[in-house]
Write a structure and sequence with these properties.
This protein has helices spanning about 5-15, 45-50, 85-100, 120-140, 165-175; strands at about 25-30, 75, 105-110, 150-155, 175-180. By secondary structure, the protein is an alpha/beta fold. Helix 3 crosses helix 4 (about 120-140).
Length: about 180
């Protein structure tokens, strides 16, 4: 008997949602049609990894996080989650702002463009978005930001910044975006 990915996501969300609290560095995959409360859905893989690691499962209330002009997006080359040399300075500036503002939590969103050739394009883009958010998070941690202040979230191709079918537009969509909220 084979269950669909959607069914597994619903089961994982139902299993963990009742006791969910936001603590530590938590990762979640957003799905199209996230709940009206603004809470994205957990993927079964993410839920299982966090549970196996003994981490509490929690989802960020995305609507509580806001952009600040001091935190800039970083952009990625097509199909990769490697920090470009030009974006290292942006990440270092973002880390400096976070060190100077220790009372803020950061949400790093991973985004992709809408291209792909396989039948599993959306799943691949969700995974790539997560890898991009993780790459940005790893850089912030290396710069002294405590992992408990960071949450990552992948939107894959679901929330494009630009909708035009051009390389200029696609390159804007391949990004990690930084949002913050006061820690309490």
């Amino acid at each position: 008997m084979s269950m669909s990915i959607h069914t597994l996501r619903v089961i994982a969300l139902a299993t963990f949602a009742s006791g969910a609290i936001l603590a530590g560095s938590v990762s979640a995959f957003a799905q199209p049609g996230a709940s009206p409360s603004g809470l994205p859905q957990l993927s079964p893989a993410t839920a299982g990894q966090a549970a196996a690691a003994g981490q509490p499962i929690g989802l960020p209330r995305v609507r509580d996080y806001q952009p600040v002009p001091e935190l800039q997006d970083v952009h990625f080359t097509f199909g990769t989650a490697v920090i470009n040399p030009d974006d290292v300075k942006i990440l270092e500036a973002n880390a400096a702002w976070l060190r100077a503002n220790p009372g803020h939590l950061v949400l790093i969103e991973g985004h992709c463009d809408n291209r792909g050739t396989t039948g599993k394009k959306n799943e691949l883009n969700m995974d790539l978005g997560e890898q991009r958010a993780q790459a940005a998070m790893n850089h912030l941690i290396a710069q002294g930001i405590h992992p408990s202040r960071i949450t990552t979230l992948s939107y894959g191709e679901e929330r494009p910044q630009c909708a035009e079918a051009s390389e200029r537009c696609w390159s804007q969509n391949r990004r990690s975006r930084f949002l913050v909220k006061p820690s309490s």
